[in-house]
Amino acid sequence: MARNGERQEGRVRGVAARAGGWSARHRWAAVGIWVLFVVLAMGIGNAVGRADVKESDQLSGETGRAERIADDAGIDEPAGETVLVQARNGQLRATAPEFKRAVEDVVKAVEGTGAVTNVRSPYAARAQSISKDGRTALVQFDMRGDPETASDRVEPVQEAVAGVADDHGALRIEEIGAASMNKTFDDAFGDDFQRAEYSAVPVALGILLIAFGALVAALLPVALAVTAIVATMGLMAIVSHLQPMSDTANSVMLLVGLAVGVDYCLFYLRREREERMKGHDAGAALRIAAATSGRAIIVSGVTVCVAMAGMLFTGIAEFQAMGLASLMVVAVAMVGSVTVLPALLSLLGERVEKGRLPFLHPDKRRGGGKGESGSRFWTRVLGVVLKRPAVSVAVAVCALLAVAAPALGMKTQNLTLDQEFGDSLPIVATYDRVNEAFPGGSEPAEVVVGADDINAPEVRSAIADFRTRAVSSGASRGPVEVTVHAAQNVAFVYVPLVGGSDQGRAEKSLALLRDEVRPATLGKVDGVEAPITGQVAGSKDFNDQIVGSVVPVFAFVVAFAFLLMLLSFRSLTVAITSIALNLLSVGAAYGILVAVFQHGWGASLVGAEGVGAIISWLPLFLFVILFGLSMDYHVFVVSRIREARLQGRTNTEAIRHGVVTTAGVVTSAAVIMVAVFSIFGTLSMQSMKQMGVGLAAAVLIDATVIRGVLLPAVMALLGERNWYLPKWLRRMPDLTHDEAPAPAPVPAAAAKGGEELRV
Questions:
Q1: Of these four, 224, 520, 649, 739, which has the most CB atoms within 10 Å of its CB?
Q2: pTM of the model
Q3: Under a CB-based contact definition with an 8 Å cutoff, are residues 690 and 683 in contact?
């Protein structure tokens, strides 16, 4: 068999086998090319810099139009800040001398910093910033300079306000605004998120040490994943000048890159080690791994890339950035796995086992080093599953459908401040107090009015009429403020919405403005454009756009994944079952998300009490990511079952062999993913908790119930129908490149039909 493995390159079939063979023969060249690629990508990326997504590019619809009107006019709205002054005991009124002195002290203190402009006292004429009950007042001002960097300059202002608060103990004196909120969140959670990203690599390395029991073997997957991530960071900067990127896209790329980079390397290494355990020499073992696991990696990688490309159909710049960044890191990791990894394994040879940890070595845990070693646990589980496949399918499907059932009542929205952070930060309580005293005042709707002549009598009359009707319609309780930029022919109308932080009620108020008040006022003036934006409008428009993109994204991902499975396995049955099992896995993850974060079942275990909704971007994001990542396991397991079937095993034995021999690598890969995603489930931001819990739960379900129970049970029931391909489809391109490596290195163990092994 070793001689068979040394056949001429002309007998080799498949891109992965050829790439692995070339890399093994030209190992220093392969390693050098990879290092040069990583260095060049990062160097060029640093030189050109990264172009980030602009706010005006984030959405289509009214929110996007409003941003573009302001951008085209060259207007940068300043970062507005507010200081709440309120009696602690509820008795002191804004007319009291002590209250007035406190307000005057706040005005003097913030003006004294030199960092603010346009300071407005609640006692100024027509200020309208004293609450109806007379117990709360607002001092408002704008930060000087670029609003994007205002959080870097707000600290002296916060300190000045805190000093005034110390001098007036009977009053609450608290600052809130875009700059102060961003500063507070960055201080509280900026490092938190970064630590979670950095801790992912040590966690993965620790689990790989347990999986391989050898330091060098454990380091290889991490090294491949890290170099793929570094190279992709450079590529992201280059590509960003065509498709702008973002910090969020960078974080998603890191997660996906670590997951697939480690997975692909793990698949390859485990197969190479298994072939050496059977008695093949290092060269033959490497070539067999290239022809089998290498091919599975390419099929899986292309499928994941297609899934990630689904995000490009959303029309949302942030999603497009995440999709493109994820697609690139998967492609880079895939190429690295079938090129530089074989070269490194060829260079290392038996030294890949260096740094062996005797108490952790997997061969000892499995009880041997020869033959078909596999997971004892999954061997026992499979014994039950294959004995009663129909019962196993029924139980597993019913369990997954029960878990998925809560998803039918899923409610999605952009989380409000108190939903996102709970009561973990004092500024959240300030936000609630402002909303209670001035409903909608902390996040007003913003009407951006663009006209040929903003000072034309009919335009000014329409704006005045809009202000009046906004209150009389019940959409707002006022005050409705107007800022006119005459030189740019643009006006901003700020409308506090009835409902405040209650997203549902606030959206009803927004609908009144958009559907009734605006058409009856500004909509009657020719040449006037008046899109309505703001936090509530942005959330509504984002949700609408996400909902509108669900069908095309789902259709694209499912259709192309089906086609790839059909071409790769030349089986209509495998293609259909692949899609069905993946959809079950995603549905179960949705159900867990809704149960925990919307209904609050077990929410205290993850610190998610009282959220009541799923953040709007997560369902589509989870579908794309999970559909892609779960294909890793599916392709790997089914490829091994198909390979065993080609060797002449019965259907049941092929299933048993495929699942048991891959159980170790699938379990190790799943444990790494679950551990890494769980880190994000511990963060304070509810959106990150939801992402972490959703990803971790789905991967866990996929690697256990789906791949360990449902897949083998379904394939056992189908029997030879697993490989059914209608005659009219047999003219499809043959991408299978069937390889049937013999199970032992003896001449008699040739591939089925007496053919010699072709690797």
A1: 224
A2: 0.80
A3: no
